[in-house]
Design brief:
The chain has 13 helices and no strands. It is mainly alpha-helical. It has one domain. 46% of the residues are buried.
Amino acid sequence: MKIDKIWVYTAATLAALFWGFSFVWFKQAFLVYRPITIVFLRLVFASVVLNIFIKTTGKTQHVTRKDLKLFMLLAFFEPFCYFLGESFGLTFISATIGAIIISTIPLFTPFFTYFLIKEKITIYGIIGLLISFFGVLLIVVKDYSGASTIKGVILMFIAVFSAISYGIIVKKLTVRYSGFTIVKWQNLFGMIYFLPVFIIFESNHFISVEHTMSAIITILKLAIFPSTLSFIFIAYVIKKIGLINANIFANLIPVFTAVIAYIILKESLELQKIIGIFVVISGLFISQIPQIKGKDKTI
């Protein structure tokens, strides 16, 4: 395997790992703050940290007015619509059903990419994607609680299609901009979108709550790792191997979450989940065979 591909798969894995941590960190921050507050603060911290990094390293890129509209649309889909759909959706359905719906992102991606950006999926990709999805079911279905409503399902699918739309726009932007620039504007506009929502729904709670240093540090970790590094890494991966192959790695997120929750939160890790983890990894490996061998048998 070439060095370049090793970096790509390392970046994809790290992105999934940090997003896996985000569910655990979010749960810890939720002990003090409400969901919209957590999302808004992590975007504020992420914007500050990334802007300081870009300024000090000289990675600033000029953005045209035409592309600025694309960045606004990008941030509207994710983080704004994605987090609203996911956060409010999970209040109506179980976390398990939510995780299953979110894991359909790689399943739906090929249909959109084929018509919108002419990106095709390989035969190996289809087989690996289905195997990986089955592995996700094995991991999350053990915790199924049965709580589900149509409203919650609709909100979760808003998150799904927002994520796909986000990926398509990122694919177009990576031709001209680095991941640092993309995530910088994504977080900035996302922060602006969430500001009125935060003020209307949760500002009173934020003012009255007893703030803790541990909660602030947790949100800072959310800002640096999932909200910044994960998106920078995934932009790089999308540029190198395409949106379809990049999104398949999203199925690693419940794998990492299950393991991290077991280690940090002392949640159970039954045999079924362990089998599911190996199934997901097997599916990911199968889906990447054409990339590893340098072949592209698309359909």
